[in-house]
Design brief:
alpha/beta, Double Stranded RNA Binding Domain, 3 domains, 17 helices
Length: 483
């Protein structure tokens, strides 16, 4: 579909809304004369005090009008509301999250609650301005209420440490994360671990100079357990030697792949201070696991999980994905019940996202995704078994524009997941692909980027350390330091 805009400054909001209904689109600025005969097109024209929208789709025409406004944000909100109503009619479907395109609906609810002083008018805004369903409003408000004590207790100079280990045994078909296959990357892995340990040491000194207080640690990837046991020990020993672990509230290591998470590696994780691990089945079906490129079986997952349980980790998280190729509603329900029966303290339910760089998309692997909403409806089993939703986020290109939700048993919420997703606390990142986010006392946010790929990270490592120096300067700008 062609989107033609006239007399408008920006197309971002219109494009993102449109992509929730159709992925194939082109955006241009100009007049409606650019339309080819019989071409599907949205034409949006600001003229005087009005913004006129006309949608030509499959030979039918839909039209609507919004008021122009000097406040560009308010005007685009009104324009998108008009477009959403047109799209729901033209495509004959409504979206559970209405016209919300953002990845953090809970943060939007939190900000609106600060503005209006109460959650009830905010629920009304979600329903009547954004067209969100009652079910999703309840999910969002339940998470907001659970998070409130946690978010309110954050102090301006608190921070969390994220450490990236971007290696995996294989790439899953749905994945587009920056990661390198570990099978033939031994030399790169060793170089990477060496530099990563240097950055961890430098970060500890930087945080000390910036007078920041460490609250949580999260080692993610990739799959951190894809490195050797000796390399994992070296990384975690460096953390232990340079940070005061006695003062932190939570320490997580992603041990997500049972095909590279050995008993020895779990022992290292526990011995060196982590109290929380994530061991991810994605599904309990061996057929589906094979289809998505996972080398482990369901039995491998159970063995790995039970080994971690015996070691006494405070919390174990298990990830499931709704909408995987070859999976069914019944299969997803079986996986969900299986995680509940194992007694996992955290169960995170992701909705499959069709990322452009993933093999599912690049390989044109077609699949019927019509059942994904029915799969997510099975999350009701979690509430029946005492789990509560505690954090949530959305992604672009997620099936049916749905959500990812973390559920936990009482008092087992992952603080890091809340901090990173709600952007209420500074996160200092180490490793390739890491993004440091320094959060100011009034919600200001400054991002500092590491190089994306491990080869770049190793090659230009001196630049990584120079960028870390920005943390101290930003903290000074935000008023954390009074030199």
């Amino acid at each position: 579909m062609l989107i033609v805009l006239n007399n408008l400054k920006s197309h971002y909001e219109i494009e993102q809304l449109t992509r929730m209904f159709t992925k194939e689109l082109t955006v241009v600025y100009g007049t409606r004369e650019q339309q080819a005969e019989n071409q599907d097109m949205l034409y949006v024209n600001r003229q005087g005090e009005d913004v006129f929208a006309e949608l030509s789709l499959n030979g039918k025409v839909y039209a609507g009008t919004a008021k122009a406004d000097e406040d560009e944000d308010k005007m685009m909100l009104d324009v998108c509301a008009v477009l959403y109503k047109m799209y729901t009619q033209a495509f004959d479907k409504k979206l559970a999250w209405g016209m919300l395109t953002g990845v953090r609906p809970v943060r939007l609810m939190r900000n609106l609650c600060k503005k209006y002083g109460d959650i009830e008018p905010v629920k009304d805004i979600f329903k009547n301005r954004y067209f969100v369903t009652d079910e999703k409003i309840k999910l969002c408000s339940d998470i907001y209420k659970l998070q409130k004590n946690i978010t309110d207790s954050c102090q301006p100079n608190d921070y969390s440490l994220y450490i990236s280990v971007p290696f995996c045994p294989t790439r899953c078909s749905y994945c587009s994360f920056v990661s390198v296959g570990s099978t033939n990357a031994s030399k790169l892995m060793e170089q990477y671990v060496e530099k990563l340990c240097e950055e961890i040491k430098y970060t500890a000194q930087t945080a000390k100079e910036a007078k920041l207080n460490l609250k949580t640690i999260y080692i993610g990837g990739g799959t951190p357990t894809a490195v050797s046991a000796e390399q994992l020990r070296r990384i975690m020993q460096t953390v232990k030697d340079n940070f005061d672990l006695s003062a932190i509230k939570e320490y997580t290591v992603e041990a997500g792949r049972p095909d590279c998470t050995t008993k020895e590696k779990l022992q290292i994780i526990k011995e060196l201070g982590a109290d929380r691990v994530s061991i991810n089945p994605q599904t309990f079906s061996d057929e589906v696991l094979k289809a998505i490129g996972r080398r482990h079986t369901h039995a491998d997952f159970v063995e790995c999980y039970e080994t971690a349980k015996e070691m006494g980790f405070k919390s174990i998280n298990t990830d499931l994905i709704a909408g995987l190729p070859l999976d069914t509603v019944e299969g997803f329900e079986k996986s969900l019940k299986g995680c509940i029966e194992l007694g996992a303290e955290n169960i995170t339910v992701h909705t499959l996202t069709l990322k452009r760089a993933s093999n599912i998309v690049t390989g044109n692997q077609n699949n019927s995704y019509a059942d994904v909403e029915q799969m997510l409806a099975k999350n009701a089993l979690l509430a029946e078994n005492g789990y509560v939703p505690y954090y949530m986020y959305r992604q672009k290109a997620t099936l049916q524009s749905l959500e990812n939700v973390g559920f936990s048993q009482p008092c087992h919420e992952s603080l890091y997941n809340i901090y990173i997703m709600e952007e209420i606390q500074t996160i200092i990142s180490c490793g390739a692909g890491g993004v440091t986010k320094v959060v100011g006392p009034n919600g200001e946010l400054k991002r500092i980027y590491n190089y994306k790929y491990p080869t770049e990270y190793v090659k230009d490592f001196d630049t990584i350390l120079k960028r870390k120096d920005e943390v101290t300067e930003v903290c000074r700008q935000f008023g954390f330091l009074n030199d």
